[in-house]
Amino acid sequence: MRFRLHPLQQKLSLLATKVLSKATVDAKIGQHIWPAWIAMFCLGALTVLSFAPFSWYLLAPVLVIPLLYCFFYCEPRQSAILGFAYGAGLFLTGTHWLYISIHIFGQVPWFLAVLLMVTLVFIMAVYYAAIGFFISTTSRRKPWIFLAVAPTTWIIFEWLRGWLLTGFPWMTLGYSQIDSPLAGFGPIAGIYGVSLIAVTSASAIMIFLILSSTRRYMVLCIAIVPWFIGGVLRTIDWTEVAGPPVRATVVQGGVPQDRKWLREQFRPTLELYRSSLIQNADSDLVLWPEVAIPAVIDQVGSYIETLQSDISKVNTTLLLGILERDESLTHVYNSVIALDGLSLQSYKKRHLVPFGEYFPVPDSIREWMRMMNLPFSDISPGVSVQPLLRMPDGNALSVAICYEDAYAAEQLYALPDATILINVSNDAWFGDSIAPHQHLQIARMRALEVGRYVIRATNNGISAFISPDGDLIQTGEQFRYATITEDVVPRTGVTPYTVVGNRLVITFSLVISGFFALRTRLRN
Question: Is the pTM higher than 0.85?
Fold first, then answer.
């Protein structure tokens, strides 16, 4: 297990300590709130370095400590202000790529793109304001109550922002720990369990620094021991082999996003993907990205028939992303279809992207968007529980399209039947930003939580094979056409998280935070 800070991490941590020392003291006595606000904003911005592609995972708990220090000493209103600053810094730097997808590729006017991005940052920052307010109100500068309330409150609001108003679980702290010993808690308690342990460790270190009694060493044990336990848990193999290896090939088309839907690019795209299928005829499974074929399926019926003919000759299963329509032609779905030479199976995306695949705005606003030549047609969601896609050899495939894989609990319906997880995406929307790396990090956590291999295909990266312990086996080079092949072993069985989902961690957090909140209220 690695516990030594990278030299640059040491410098950043030292710099943060120097910058924050006066600001946090001032916040403690209720003075000079603006310097403290700026310091917390910078702290949130620095926390992004703990996530992919930087992955300096120790920075996450280290940089949370000064924020928790403020929550401990400040009044609730000040804590809310500083929590908002931290959240704003975290999401402005961590999701700045929204501007690229909305303006550069979505061709939305820059002012509207900035407005949408800032609105999201504001909403996300409000959650951290609520965290600060609740912790300060409940703990009342009592170290042991703070140690119980701070981590559980943090996790409650991370969970809330993961589903409230359709949810946006990006930047959940636990993702930063995918390469740390704390990831060992993933198969037991999921992403929120990893977050809980990380914030508990940070809270315990903060309490250790302010206590003067001998009990401070007990708190230090609370901070350190989980890292060793997590390291041991990472060695446990929670699931078992379910059958012979499946030879799988991922095709990364590398078609630039600004050319994907051009008329002159359509025929070359069809030829590109069909040739990849023929060239990998020895694979049991071939996977193409989200909407690899830029059309509605009823528009390319002859092409689908040709693919079925090709597949019947080589005994391969092909999964490809394409749009579908219902019989009335009024609903369009973002789908993945499975072709095996004889039959066609379909999975329809269930969790859609607001302002990307549907527009939750009044009809008058839709008309304004139409006049500005902006997208305004909604994609329809598929039903919440759908049959798994099945290969002729009996393997069951659980599919997540795009950022559906960020909603861990929504994928559990497919288990334990699913033997392999499939993720297709089109991260070309985010250009050469940190977003594709963050998305890959999320997919790694899904593999770890349920003990299954993940096969991931994206239009221009980052395509990958991920092992059941969340490690990267092989990745495709970004922004290029690539095919990567790997023998993937189907898995069966369940992890504890597969059985209980988020219920264990969330119930525990609600009970602990609720108990101390009620206790504080009664004593006041």
Answer: yes
The tokens of 181 are what?
């010993």
Contacts of 256 (CB under 8 A, 6+ apart): 428, 460
Q: Which of 260, 324, 348, 349 is catalytic?
A: 349
Catalytic site residue 70?
Answer: no
What does the alpha-carbon distance between residue 43 and residue 162 come to, in Å, rounded to a whole number? 22
Catalytic residue among 42, 260, 290, 486: 290
Where helices occur in 353-502 by DSSP H, the ranges are 363-371, 435-450, 496-500
| Cβ atoms of residues 453 and 216 within 8 Å | no
| Residue 369 per-residue DSSP state | H
Distance CA 158, CA 505 (A): 12
Per-residue pLDDT of the chain (524 residues; tens, 9 = 90+): 333 444 544 554 454 444 444 444 444 445 667 889 999 999 999 999 999 999 999 999 999 999 999 999 999 999 999 999 999 999 999 999 988 888 787 777 888 889 989 999 999 999 999 999 999 999 989 999 999 999 999 999 999 999 998 889 999 999 999 999 999 999 999 999 999 999 999 999 999 999 887 788 889 999 999 999 999 999 999 999 999 999 999 999 998 888 888 899 999 999 999 999 999 999 999 999 999 999 999 999 999 999 999 999 988 999 999 999 988 778 899 999 999 999 999 999 998 877 666 666 566 655 555 545 444 457 889 999 999 999 999 999 999 999 899 999 999 999 999 999 999 999 888 888 999 999 999 999 999 999 999 999 999 989 999 999 999 999 999 999 999 999 999 999 999 999 999 999 999 999 999 999 998 888 77
C-alpha R_g of the chain: 24
Cα separation, 461 vs 253, in Å, equals 9
Considering only the C-alpha atoms of the chain, give the largest distance between any 2 of them, rounded to a whole number of Å.
77
Query: What does the CA dihedral 209, 211, 217, 222 come to, rounded to 10 degrees?
Result: -70
Domain borders along the chain are 7-237+502-523, 240-494
260 is catalytic: no
Buried b (16+ CB within 10 A) or exposed e, 1-33: eeeebeeebeebbeebeebbeebbebbeeeeeb
Out of 42, 74, 402, 486, pick the active-site residue.
402
Question: How many C-alpha atoms does 509 have within 13 Å on its Cβ side?
Answer: 26
CATH class of the domain defined by 240-494: alpha beta
Residue 319's SS3 state is strand
* 8 A C-beta contact, residue 423 and residue 443: yes
Q: Which two tokens stand for residue 341?
A: 């030479």
Q: State the Cα–Cα distance between residues 250 and 285, nearest whole angstrom.
A: 9
Do 455 and 465 meet the contact criterion of CB atoms below 8 Å apart?
Answer: yes
- Which residues neighbour 225 within 8 Å (Cβ) at sequence distance 6 or greater? none
Hey, how many other C-beta atoms are within 10 angstroms of the C-beta on 443?
A: 25
Annotation says 305 is catalytic: no
